[in-house]
C-alpha cells in the first residue's frame, strides 16, 4: 500500500478516532456494529485488518472476543493500544503491516475478519484481490468476514451537498457511475471507489460466499448537513432516524447508493485455500 496513504493516517490518527463520533458518521458506526452483532460468531478470535485507532476492536474486546489488530500506521496502532489498555483490555497482538502483507497471520487463525478500510486505498485490482484471498486464508472454514468498499454511487449523491461545485463539468457527474482511482490531489488521500457489482465480482473471485451486503448510511446517505442539523435541533428525531437507518442498512432500496458498502461473506465449510 502506498506510503502516501500511510503518511495520511500517521498524520490523522486522532481524527480517525473522533470521525465516528460526528453525527453523520454515527450512522455508519451503528450499522457496522449491527452487522458484526448479527453475523459474527458469538465467541472467538477476530482479526481487525486496517484497524485504525481501534474503535471496532474495543467493542469486540468488551464483548469477550480475542482480537488481533493490524494497520499500516504505527501512530494509529499506538493510539489503539493506549485506548485499549486504558480501558483495562488486552488485545492478542498489534501488527504494523499493510493489508497486502497479511502473510504474517497464520492460516485459519481466526473466526472472523474485519477489513473496513484497506480496500478504499488499493488502486490495483491484483492488490485488492490479494487482500481478499488472505482474508479467506486466515479464516477458519465457516468463518465470517466484513469487507468494506467506498461506493461511487453513494459518493455521487453525497457530492450534491458536499462538493457540488465540481459538477459544473457534467463529465465529473458521470465519472461516479463507474469505478474510479483517485490520487492524492484528487481525494482525501489516494483512494479507490467502486460500484456494487464490481465489488461482488472481486469478492466472489476470492472464493467467498456472499451472505448479504449493506449500505452503511442507509436512507440517510448524502444527508450530512440535514443529519447534523437534526442532531442539534431535534435530538429525538435524530435518534429515531439513526436507529431506523442502522436497522435498514441491508434493505435493497437503500444499500446501492450509500458512501460505505459493507459486504458480509463466509468462507465455505470444508474449503481449502489454494491461493
Describe the protein.
There is one protein chain. With 275 residues, the chain is α/β, with parallel strands linked by helices. It has a single domain, classed as 3-Layer(aba) Sandwich (Rossmann fold), CATH 3.40.50. It is built from twelve helices and nine strands. Strands 1, 2, 3, 4, 5, 6, 7, 8 and 9 form a nine-stranded mixed β-sheet that branches. Strand 6 (180-182) and strand 7 (191-194) form a beta hairpin. It is globular, with a radius of gyration of 18 Å. Residues 46-143 form the Methyltransferase domain. It comes from Paenibacillus apis. This is Methyltransferase domain-containing protein. InterPro entries: Methyltransf_25, SAM-dependent_MTases_sf.
CATH architecture: 3-Layer(aba) Sandwich
CATH class: Alpha Beta
- Rounded average pLDDT: 94
Main beta-sheet annotation: 9 strands, mixed
Helix content: 40-55%
Shape: globular
Q: Could you please say which CATH topology applies here?
A: Rossmann fold
- Proportion in β-strands: 15-25%
Care to count the β-strands? 9
The number of domains = 1
- Work out the helix count: 12
Helix and strand pattern: HHHEHEHEEHEHHEEHEHHHE
Contiguous runs where pLDDT drops below 50 for at least 5 residues: none
Distance between the terminal alpha carbons, to the nearest Å?
A: 20 Å
